[in-house]
Amino acid sequence: MSDTIAAVATGAQVAAIGIIRLSGAAAIAIADRLFRPAAGKSMADYGDRRLVYGRLIDCAGETLDLCLCTISRAPNSYTGEDTAEFQCHGSPTVLRAALEACFACGARQALPGEFTKRAFLNGRMELTAAEAVADLIDAETVESAKNAAAQLSGAIADKTASIYSDLTDISAHYHAVLDYPDEDIEDFRLENYKAQLQAADTALHTLLKSFDRGRHLTAGLPAAIVGRPNAGKSSLLNALLGYERAIVTSVPGTTRDTIEEKVRLGSVLLRLTDTAGIRDTDDTVERLGVERSRLAMERAELVIAVIDGSEEPTGEDLAILRAAEQRPHAVLVISKADLGQERPAPETSLPTVSVSSVTGQGLDELERVVKAMFPLPPVPAGQILTNARQAEAVSRALESIRAARQAMETGCTPDIVLTETETAMAALGELTGSCVREDVTNRIFARFCVGK
């Protein structure tokens, strides 16, 4: 990582401010070549993290912008290297010209996530914190942002550090007795460490249980709106979105295919699919849509079954309702409450909400019902696992801890127990990045945006 990287760290659109970021051995030297402080000094004369006003120039000395510049010296910077930033007016043309000037001075284009990757490789943050940077940028709910911010502060690393320390104590004591039999070291007895293994089991189990809700925080909960044609499904989707995404007409069967959009209901982010009306039909295209609707219903973790409240429930309505009752989570929506002709709702074990997609009546109640179905885990912010890599590492660590406990309880020799505890330590090391393969880190940072 001896080379110096540069990138535009803000969006490509016109904005009030645009930032160019540099990191590497030549970052401050490049800032000195391209920035002229108004006070007449060079940037190298200034202390770290001071905003300096001046002129940004190109390699020919022509002024590109009047802006601010700041530098930070290694190792006390975001990346752990010398860094510089130009905070310019947000003209994409100016930013591109300034970036090309950086390249002409010896920098190269930064790869996606390369600034954060350098921070990780230089020991400025552990891997779960680095992943939280991307989660924070991509956050679509306040809860997701809070969890990512806490992870960025090291919440998961702090949670697992005590477990790793306890396992290290067990391993160190065993090997000390084994390697130095003549020293005055307390005898190694497995039963002395039973409480530590139990505590590790409990903590890792709690952490792993948070993953289902955590992946919903970042990716969204798969949900499907189902019902017969003209029940009000597309109108409900549009009402939840706040704009006309699906075509709505009085003609049954308007929706022929599934439509997927992300919708926030309070703290719950839904990956909501509006489906074709479910009914028997001879129309080939509509029949394909109905098949996709049934498939979406089977895959959904939340089903919103819609019944037209202005009409008597039909056999098709009841069949759809019974199918929804078999899903892990479902709610019955009685639509078209604004028509003032609402019929009694069918008997069901599902929570029932009366809704008008025209007036918005009942949407707050629907939000409350869904939120109650998917509460956040009762753990501090930051201790919710949000991706499969983290969950897989915690799962392997938990499996090894439980194998160690079982070996202890069945009277196995200490070396068998130690093998499992050291396997658990390796898994926790992969979680935080203290011992992770290069191909894994490359795949993690590839999902980042350029400039972060």
3D architecture notes:
It is a single chain. The chain has helices at residues 27-34, 92-104, 114-121, 127-138, 142-152, 155-179, 194-209, 211-219, 233-241, 284-299, 315-325, 363-373, 388-409, 414-432, 438-445, and strands spanning 5-8, 15-23, 35-37, 52-57, 63-72, 83-90, 108-109, 221-226, 259-265, 268-274, 302-308, 330-335, 352-354. By secondary structure, it is α/β, with parallel strands linked by helices. The chain has three domains: 5-110, 2-Layer Sandwich (Gyrase A, domain 2), CATH 3.30.1360; 155-210 and 381-435, Four Helix Bundle (Hemerythrin (Met), subunit A) (Up-down Bundle); 219-373, Rossmann fold (3-Layer(aba) Sandwich). A seven-stranded mixed β-sheet has the order 3-4-5-6-2-1-7. It has a six-stranded mixed β-sheet with strand order 9-10-8-11-12-13, with helices on both faces. A hairpin with a 2-residue loop joins strand 9 and strand 10 (268-274). Helix 13 (388-409) packs antiparallel against helix 14. It is flat, with a radius of gyration of 29 Å.
Give the strand content. 15-25%
Tally of DSSP β-strands: 13
Q: What is the share of helical residues?
A: 40-55%
Overall body shape: flat
What structural category do the secondary elements indicate? alpha/beta
Radius of gyration: 29 Å
Largest beta-sheet details: 7 strands, mixed
Keyword list:
single chain; 452 residues; alpha/beta; 3 domains; 15 helices; Rossmann fold; seven-stranded mixed β-sheet
Task: Lay out the secondary structure.
Blueprint: E1 5-8, E2 15-23, H1 27-34, E3 35-37, E4 52-57, E5 63-72, E6 83-90, H2 92-104, E7 108-109, H3 114-121, H4 127-138, H5 142-152, H6 155-179, H7 194-209, H8 211-219, E8 221-226, H9 233-241, E9 259-265, E10 268-274, H10 284-299, E11 302-308, H11 315-325, E12 330-335, E13 352-354, H12 363-373, H13 388-409, H14 414-432, H15 438-445
Parallel strand pairs: 1-7, 8-10, 8-11, 11-12, 12-13
Antiparallel strand pairs: 1-2, 2-6, 3-4, 4-5, 5-6, 9-10
Helix pairs in contact: 4-5, 6-7, 6-14, 7-13, 13-14
